[in-house]
Structure formats: C-alpha cells, structure tokens
Write the structure tokens for this entry.
Amino acid sequence: MNAPASRNAALVQALDLGGDGPRVAVKDCIDITGTVTGCGSAAFAGAVPATEHAEIVGALLDAGCKIVGKANMHELAFGMTGVNGFTGTPVNPIWPDRIPGGSSSGSAVAVAAGLCDFAVGTDTGGSIRQPATCCGVFGIKPTFGRVSRKGLTPRHSSLDCPGILARDMEMLTRGMAAIDPSFQAETLIHAPKLGRIKSEGVAPEVGDPLVYALMDAYPDMPYELLPSFEAAFDAGMVVMSHEMAQEFGPMLDRGAPFGPDIAARLAKAQTVSAAQLAEAEEIRTRFTAEVDALLSRYDALVTPSLPMVPPTLDAAKDPQNVLSLTRYQRPFNLSGHPALTLPARNNAGLPIGLQIVGRKGEDAKLCAIARWITSCIPLFQSKDRTQ
C-alpha cells in the first residue's frame, strides 16, 4: 500500500513546484513531469513517470502557482465515496465519520484542511461537485471542452472536465483564471434570474433549508421541469461506463490489480451494448436541448447539490446508500453545461449544498452568480469552514 504524503491521506505525494502564487494540489490522474500518474490504483504504481506536464499543469505554472502535491482520489476516478484501500481514504476534515466524496476526494480534503489555496479535480459525473459538498467547500465543473484534457487519465472522455475546488468564491475564480487564460472574471450589476429545477427524492433535512433560504431572497422563484432529467442521469452512467470500459477494460482482462469494487464496475461496464449507447446519445441530445431552452429564459438553474447528507463511512459500505448521490449532478456532465456547487450546513450542522448551472461558455457569469448568492443569502455566506 502506498504511504500517503499527508496525515489525512489528502496527498499521495508532496511537491514543491512553481512560483510563489496560490498553493495548489493537483489530482493524481493529471500528468506532472517526473511523477507517476497513479490514478489511486495499484495498477499504475509501477508506471513510467510522466515525461511532460498536462496542459492544465503548464497553465498553473505559467500563472505563477505553487504545486504542493498530488491529490489522492477514488481509484480510476470511478467511484463516489472516496474510499481507497490502496492509497488510503482521505479523512473529511470537518465530518471525519462521513465520506470525503469522490472521485476528487483528496482535492476536496486538501482544500478543506487548508493544505492548499485551491485544488484541481476532475468531474465525469459529479466528481468535483460531490466531494466539494461532502467536505464543505466550493467546486466548479466548467463547460465541457473549455479546459484542456491533454495529459489527463482517462485519455478519452466525452463527459470529464478538469475544474477547481476552493474555500471561497474569490479563490475559486482565481483558480479558474489560472487554468484557463481566456477566463475573465465578471461582476453582476443586478440580481440574476434563477429557475428552480423540480427535484424528486430530496431528503427534508437537505431540501427544507435550501428552499427556505431561496424563498427569502426569491419569494416568487418558479419551479421548472426538465422532462429528461432522470433519463439523463441513467444515460450519463451508460456513457461513462462504456468509455471507462474502452480505456481500462483491456487492463482488467490482463489481470491488472484493481480494487474489488473497481474490478466489478469495470466488468459490468464491459456489458454496455451498442443499443444502450445509442439510446444514451439520443437522450444526451434531447436533454441538452431542454437545458438550453430553459437557459434562454434564465441566467442560471438551481438544484440541490446532493439529495441527502453525505453518508457515514460505515453506511457507505452498502452501495444502495450512495447510488443516488450524484442524481442532480451527472445529467449536466451529459449535457456539458458548467455547474458550480455552493456549500452550506443544515440545522444539524451537516453538509448540504446548492448547485447552480449556467449557459455553455458562460463560466465567468456562473461564478459571478455564485458570488452574488453568497453575498446576499445567509445560508451560503462565508463561515469558518475548518470546524
């Protein structure tokens, strides 16, 4: 088993690379010259070190950032809990009995624990937004294709986006500008027009605080329907499974030492049929059009980040307790829209969050909307996120 580079297992390797700007942790599925891209897996432990930086790492260094380490992750970025028997499970700093979330578990924990100013994660079906919510920090999945994936594992994905996790919106915005030089921060001059997506299956301990907070600021905010929302969640899983099987299935067939949960998921992923994939792509087209149509009338759409509070590590041993964690996040990987999650706490002090979704390419406006919400709705205003 690898020895983690930090006591809370947030980092698998400590580094000191770059300038004197913000301290950054980079998820260990992103190439950094001279280091093994371990992907949280024993299957890559003996891999040849990367010979060049991923383009996103080059952008960070060009922006003067200091890379302080490679962040731990759920193996192969193919899981939602962050539990990892090989590299260790990152410890959720504020709620240590609960999952850190996945797959960008180490990135979220490193930010929440103050080991870095912001972290880079990747998001294929909620893998930035979900651990950000679990650990009480902010996380953004940019518009698909906006930020280069060159030098990332998996090498090919129609869903995966590198993005940023941070403790506040100022640092999240700085992180976006560092990884994407075309990103120009914006400021709102009036309140944004928001539409609430009608969400089924939200636990009252999550939904009630969010609804009451939004009603105070937006008493007349309408509910809207995305007819293909549930289908898009399932379709996103089909597409992701197919693409992961294409990337890692041959390694599984050769007996690569994947963890039991990953081996089982990859074996199941290899059964995705051409007909299932074609149906998923039809749903992608339909759902994307539905989201675009709503966003022609609103500046952004809002949903809960998670349908329930993050489960405890013990409860997460039962897959039934984690299957729905990304039900409001994964659909927007399928459609490619930028999505950002704002952390909050419910009346019991447990982590909850609000997801906001913007128009494609309008990532800076989405960040501006998030800053507006955090400035005027008490539930989302900055608190000490270390206790």
The mean pLDDT is 96. The domain at 11-179 is CATH 3.90.1300.10 (Amidase signature (AS) enzymes).
